[in-house]
From TrEMBL:
UniProt name for this protein: KIB1-4 beta-propeller domain-containing protein
Domain of life (superkingdom): Eukaryota
Species whose genome carries this gene: Arabidopsis suecica
Record domain KIB1-4 beta-propeller: where: 67-338
Length: 368
């Protein structure tokens, strides 16, 4: 799980009361999950408490008060998020649950809970460390074609149809090729994609993929790169790099993002702390030579959200306060990267924020 220690500086001199935001009638901002704060234990083992979210457009905490927290989730670890749904795993029996607990517009007293089969590891795999999760539809409720996919660190990918499958379909990904790749689902192609390290290839899996099938291999060809001097390229070569494939809501645009972060030892964190140095975006374009990934510093009105959840992008004009042509990131710092200037703004800690985040995932805007 990603862990982030917020800085000690504060955004303002507001009092210690959390800022209670009233969400707009038809849509919310994108939010980052900060966790829950238990207030009361109810008969039967359930609890009530506050759901804490971070609004990047205002750099404020949004509190959803008096939310019922099912007892099943109290001892479970959040392992990812997709389309605003949280994925949780029981530490004891490795069963998986999907819930709308972090949806500020969902029922406070009766959050949706969908139970999936227990996870099982391949002989050469493991199910303790998760890269990310992805889902083929916006909701796991009543969708016949909804497939949930979990990419684990290492060489295991697991697929399941909520409400249909009694066990997971465990797939062995190409060894030493996709160990820490980030999974995404393409609505346009109806396939799950995993970019290879370096972003030179994509491996894809359709919704009916079987254990013994082979993924399709797609080679990516690049055109243009940023004009950097030798020292800047040398700095980037010493950075940790992660690739993300992301698709626009309509499916008519696709981007590959390369995220460069430099590691430093932190005595406060007692480990390595990563600071974002650069984010490069390549847009997929149709040419007479086929599909080419072209470097760009202009994605127009779009803004991209990266974390350990399934990456997504939305038009900035759809939510007041979002900055177009930007990337909101969490994992190697928390902030926003301006593609026009190439500069990153790191968010400071708002009043009432947990000192350590263990479940920080971006949630897309919610609508009634």
């Amino acid at each position: 799980m990603s862990r982030l220690l917020f800085g000690l500086s504060k955004l303002s001199s507001r009092n210690d009361v959390l800022i209670h935001k009233s969400v707009r009638l038809f849509s919310t901002s994108p939010y980052l999950t900060l966790g829950t704060r238990v207030k009361e234990v109810l008969p039967g083992g359930c609890k009530t408490g506050d759901v804490l979210l971070f609004d990047p457009t205002k750099e404020e905490i949004v509190t959803v008060p008096e939310k019922t927290i099912p007892k099943e989730l109290m001892d479970e670890e959040m392992m990812g998020a997709s389309h605003g749904w949280g994925f949780f795993c029981d530490r004891r029996d490795r069963s998986v649950r999907i819930s709308d607990i972090f949806n500020p517009l969902a029922s406070k007293s009766n959050p949706v809970m969908i139970t999936l089969p227990r996870l099982t590891a391949l002989p050469t795999g493991q199910t303790e460390e998760v890269c990310n999760v992805a889902m083929s539809s916006s909701s796991p409720l009543g969708e016949e074609d909804c497939v949930v996919a979990i990419k684990f660190s290492g060489n295991q990918l697991s697929l399941c149809r909520p409400g249909c499958d009694l066990e997971w379909t465990n797939i062995l990904t190409p060894i030493n090729c996709l160990e820490n790749s980030n999974l995404m689902y393409s609505k346009r192609d109806r396939r799950f994609y995993l970019p290879s390290p370096g972003g030179n290839y994509l491996f894809s899996y359709d919704l009916h993929f079987k254990t013994d099938d082979f993924p399709e291999l797609h080679e990516l060809f690049y055109r243009d790169h940023p004009e950097l001097d030798q020292s800047e390229w040398e700095l980037l070569s010493s950075c940790s790099r992660t690739e993300y494939l992301v698709e626009s809501p309509s499916g008519d645009e696709r981007f590959l993002v390369k995220w460069y972060a430099l590691g430093f030892f932190s005595s406060m964190l007692k480990g390595i702390y990563y600071k974002t140095k650069r984010l490069m975006v390549f847009r997929e374009e149709e040419t007479t030579e086929g599909k080419i990934m072209c470097y760009t510093e202009d994605i127009g009105d779009m803004c991209i959200f990266l974390a350990n959840n399934e990456a997504f992008c939305i038009p900035a004009s759809s939510c007041l306060g979002l900055k177009p042509n930007s990337i909101y990131f969490m994992g190697r710092g928390l902030g926003i990267y301006d593609l026009t200037t190439g500069e990153a703004h790191h968010y400071k800690a708002p009043k009432g924020a947990p000192s350590v985040l263990t479940t920080p995932y971006w949630l897309p805007p919610f609508s009634i």
